[in-house]
DNA sequence: TCAGAAAGGGTAACCGGTTACACATAGAAA
DNA sequence: TTTCTATGTGTAACCGGTTACCCTTTCTGA
């Protein structure tokens, strides 16, 4: 790879002038500029980003920390982030934290050592202190680290209301909820939303709420157990799509017909939800838009631009399909 | 962030000595070493990776270029690559090429400018020339760029044989194939494998092979068309899982029972294949292992170590589930 | 006519590491 | 005792850019 010195020599100017042409900064004569551009073309010169980063204390890179890219929610988010970052000239370093505090801190250190300009993170375990100590813009997505930090979330409560009311409107008279992990904010909110709608119903009891782990296995088990103890259940609101699919599998295993005998609604609107048979009715989050928004906000933050609002709560939508 | 100079000053030594301690290189007295380590701890010093990269002409980063991380095959691959890279101290820059030659070249340039040490790529459009010009180790995965370049693929032909023979063994007497895009090596091979098994059958004609685009929509359409023109079909081998699921949807739409009236086999063994109802019988690729192997090979290549074999063809397995 | 501003471009310091080289000292071999 | 080698440490060049600062030349306006 040719360096700026070689370009300077070929063009018969100093490196400073080449740099000025490159960055379109300072005064450069028309003729000189052409000479330099010619030399650049001739040598197929591309400036060394590492050297640039060292001087600027800024790499044109952002970090994306997710719990696990294999979790179907995150590929779409990652795609949105990468697309948007790329549009603004940034690269994306992918990190899988497994929600592990030690790994998370290690990634944070690594990103800082690499002079990344900003970080997008989805985590339940990260603390505000960790983030602030970094001294780099951080946007939190899907999960809230702390009020005050830039955050992108969705209307979990409202989505849960919508899902539960919808099941009622479909004629369900006994509606259960498979909730996400205790302590995870969005799981708590979705559960709370469900509870607000059903708690004044005469049939409701706490045993209609069962724990899941946001994965399929836990949900299958929970549903099997649920339908055994409460055979009267005719509607399930699962806190995410994977668990909703698990519920469908459990129902199928027991010979319970979906949607005729049991209606099921999920949450998230991941692509997966439309490949099942029957297709899943779900509360969709605008995942791509959220990733895009997060990245745009991060870019503004990195460029020290004004960014007015730093807390966004995206609306969610019910998509009616065949599981209800 | 503290710099090496500050550490040197605090420890009362020169920066060279600090560097020696850091890298465990050259002679350092026991007492001096302790002083330096103490200073490092005190300042919470972490060496600046960018400065290091500049001098070494090596960043501890590798690039991963995939067509689209949203394609369900790739998250698992990405996870494997990131896990393995991380284990060896490397970061991963994620790039979505959309199989677009221009984007691909742009990513290649960018990665080179950022001094990445190596690249893992999955692409049909990249040429050997592009790769060689980079002068960086590149491992191709899932798709073959050129014999001679480090490559990880699977036994596509054999997998197709297995799938087709399996359908025959299950009593299917008219077996169709939904193939992947023309010109894509693995699609061609899978099709060829199918053809080898069925072409001596008396019932076989080219009209049993239909084009798909490795996505669900194309497959639904193709299957609908196929079943209309050939109602006698009782088995379908789809060239990937997504298309197999598309075929299931089409069958469902026509009221054809899977697996009773129509058996379906997919290819890839992505996680998705086990969430459908009925679960999909498929030829599984060891995706995670492939990503792991690719990364390990890349690391060896980057460290100029001996790597004997550079072409791996992984075996595939039939997983029997409920779609057959 | 002449001061001051604008335009054009070079020199060298700097970013934060690594390492070749120089130098000093101590112990081992001759 | 002398010489050689191993050990320990500092100085400064270097990686490839950016930019503060300086110097010249040309233009502008009073």
Structural summary, described in words:
Two copies of one chain form a homodimer. Chain A is of the alpha/beta class. Chain A folds into three domains: 44 residues, lambda repressor-like DNA-binding domains (434 Repressor (Amino-terminal Domain)); 127 residues, Rossmann fold (3-Layer(aba) Sandwich); 129 residues, Response regulator (Rossmann fold). Helix content of chain A is 45%, strand content 16%. Chain A contains twelve helices and twelve strands. In chain A, the strands form two sheets. In chain A, strands 2-1-3-4-5-11 form a six-stranded parallel beta sheet, sandwiched between helices. A six-stranded mixed beta sheet of chain A has the order 7-6-8-9-10-12, with helices on both faces. In chain A, strand 1, helix 5 and strand 2 form a beta-alpha-beta unit. In chain A, helix 1 packs across helix 2, helix 1 packs across helix 3 and helix 8 runs parallel beside helix 9. The longest helix of chain A is centred in the C-terminal third of the chain and has 16 residues. The radius of gyration of chain A is 26 Å and the shape is elongated. The mean pLDDT of chain A is 95. At the A-B interface, helix 4, helix 5, strand 2, helix 6 and helix 11 of A face helix 4, helix 5, strand 2, helix 6 and helix 11 of B.
